[in-house]
Design a protein that fits this description.
2% strand, mainly alpha, 223 residues
Length: 223
């Protein structure tokens, strides 16, 4: 039974039918399914992120794939800029912001990852929320949906810090304490030399504010 199920998901040659669905959602999305294309892009970004992670772990096949993809995109950059206005504008923003994103606190990559995940989830949930009967099959995150759009506005920064970023960091406090860099930050240590995440809250909010001033990323953690 199990082999029949697997076979039904694959075409001859072992190619998953889900790839066909992903391609169709991108190139010919169903007008009655507003979440199809954004959802497909999220899944695609997750696949590329997995390949990046595997490359960082020394995976040779993923390393070759990313090297070839990077070279191909570099070769096509001028044409993509010419043919797609959104690509040109967004690429220009990220290129000009690249140097600035390398600076900041040691918490920045972690905070950026938390925000990137929240952006992806919020984007999909906002679309799904408008689909009839979506609540029956999709659990909505009321806290995330209730937040204002992420921006550099001080009040917005405070809300995202208090309701999304800080709770996530709080849940991993023991890991942060063991981190060789974050766990030894002088600002985080109390009078007894014990790590206290609460002492880093001003730095966390400041980092969120700096990220808010950068171009918004939905699919990848760019920092």
């Amino acid at each position: 039974m199990k082999s029949d199920t697997i076979a039904s998901k694959r075409r001859p040659g072992g190619v998953s039918r889900s790839i066909d669905y992903l391609r169709s959602s991108l190139t010919n999305p169903d007008p009655d399914d507003e979440a199809a294309k954004p959802g497909a892009l999220v899944h695609l970004s997750e696949l590329v992120a997995a390949a990046i992670h595997q490359t960082e772990r020394g995976d040779p096949e993923c390393g070759y794939f990313l090297a070839e993809l990077f070279a191909y995109l570099c070769k096509r950059k001028a044409n993509l800029c010419e043919q797609n206005e959104i690509f040109r504008k967004c690429y220009s923003k990220w290129e000009s912001a690249r140097v600035a994103t390398r600076k900041g606190s040691p918490l920045r990559p972690l905070i950026h990852a938390i925000l990137a995940e929240a952006f992806r989830e919020r984007r999909v949930q906002q679309i799904t929320k408008s689909i009839p009967k979506a609540r029956l099959v999709f659990k909505l995150n009321k806290t995330l949906l209730g937040l204002p759009d992420f921006s550099a506005d001080p009040q917005v920064v405070t809300e995202w810090t208090n309701k999304i970023v800080y709770p996530k960091l709080r849940a991993m406090q023991s890991k942060l304490e063991e981190d060789p860099v974050i766990g030894k930050l002088k600002k985080a240590l109390d009078e007894n030399g014990k790590f206290q995440l609460s002492r880093l809250k001003p730095l966390i909010r400041q980092t969120v504010a700096r990220i808010a001033a950068m171009p918004k990323a939905y699919y990848f953690d760019i920092h």
